[in-house]
Amino acid sequence: MARRSLRHLVGRRATLRGLSSQQPKVVALGGGMGLSASLTALRRITGDLTAVVTVADDGGSSGRLRDELGVLPPGDLRKALAALCGDDEWGRTWAQVVQHRFESRGDLHEHAVGNLLIVALWEQLGDHVQALDLVGKLLGAHGRVLPMSAVPLELRASVRGHDPARPDELSIVRGQATVALTRGEVQEVHLVPSDPPAVSEAVRAVLDADWVVLGPGSWFSSVIPHLLVPELLEALTETKARKVLSLNLAPQRGETDGFSPQRHLEVLGRHAPKLTFDVVLADQDAVPDQDSLSEAADQLGGRVELAPVAAAGGAARTESGEGTPRHDPELLAAAYDRIFRMHGRIGPWR
User: Fold this and answer.
1) pLDDT digit string, tens, across residues 280-299
2) Which of 266, 267, 275 is CA-nearest to residue 239?
3) Are 271 and 188 in contact (CB under 8 A)?
4) pLDDT, tens digit, for every residue of 326-340?
5) 255 closest CA partner among 318, 173, 169
6) Using CA atoms, how far apart are residues 279 and 269, in angstroms rounded to an integer?
7) Among 44, 75, 312, 350, which one is least packed by beta carbons within 10 Å?
8) 235 near 207, Cβ under 8 Å?
9) What number of CA atoms fall less than 13 Å from residue 156's CA on the CB side?
10) Distance CA 109, CA 103 (A)
């Protein structure tokens, strides 16, 4: 009886979502802090928003739950849901609750409340999508969160110079957490299994979107993995939606050390040669060579839009405690809104 009641609530939310009014349908893909930045901005300009989230995380609380219970890693899904919470008291409170981490000397240490909630509902409902929809309803999330695949994935990277004693040698580095901080230069990444099934709702969302936003985020461990899921890549290639590639504010220590903005585009193009973008969005102060970036964007079929999107006054802290430049939600929202208006749309806003 309890399971039927939960399913009824989820079904009712889906029906109400279908009645949402004239707004652009936007799908944002990524993971971690980068996707959270996009979602926090995008929820300000549309109520028809879907996040498609990578599921290759193997570190921290997510990795422990994945190893112990054999579930999808919930951490990036949790962060996306928290980012979709509103700015009112209800939204702020729930965002803080799901992000809260226990501190103890026992097994609960460093587990996030939201991770445990998501996994509990997966076990109760037996359905990843319905469970995430229900968490979104509880939080009052301004959008929907979907995993890109229904199976846990392992990220592997080919890295040149991972062993400093052999700078020209290629090594295989396994695991998203390890890839994100690897020494050496990442050449390419792939997933295990190599042809994971995409979540069908994520594929439909991409095909039905007006706009698709990829990035910002950890380039090899959060952004490019979406392009390694065959059904999802096919949807991204075939969709009539316009596509925005949102660049990071700075290279990431480890996986993209020393990368120029155009280098990010080049490696993405190597992983998905047939994929095109309409717009490449970059912070105006993070592009030292605009001509080279424009040439790289042209190779992907798009044009560069420069805008002030970085937050003033310092960097955000990652879960590892490191500082990283962060996006300003209002400025990023303004940039997305301007792009959506300037570059037209596919059909009327729904």
Assistant:
1) 999 999 999 999 999 999 99
2) 275
3) yes
4) 999 999 999 999 999
5) 173
6) 14
7) 312
8) yes
9) 9
10) 5
Asked if 151 and 201 touch (Cβ cutoff 8 Å), the reply is no
Three-state DSSP class for residue 101 = strand
Cα(293)–Cα(266) distance, integer angstroms: 10
281 by Cβ neighbours in 10 Å (0-12 / 13-18 / 19+) ranks as buried
Instruction: Extract the tokens encoding 235.
Output: 């949807």
* Bridge partners, 170 (sequence order): 160
**Residue owning tokens 């890109």:** 148
Written as six digits, the tokens of 118 are 């998501």
Beta carbons within 10 angstroms of residue 118's beta carbon: 27
**Quick one: tokens of 149?**
């695949």
Distance CA 120, CA 109 (A): 18
Look up residue 241 and give its amino acid. Answer: A
Which pair of structure tokens corresponds to residue 309? Answer: 């999107």
Cβ atoms of 183 and 164 closer than 8 Å? yes
146, two tokens: 């979907």
What pTM was estimated for this model as a whole? 0.88
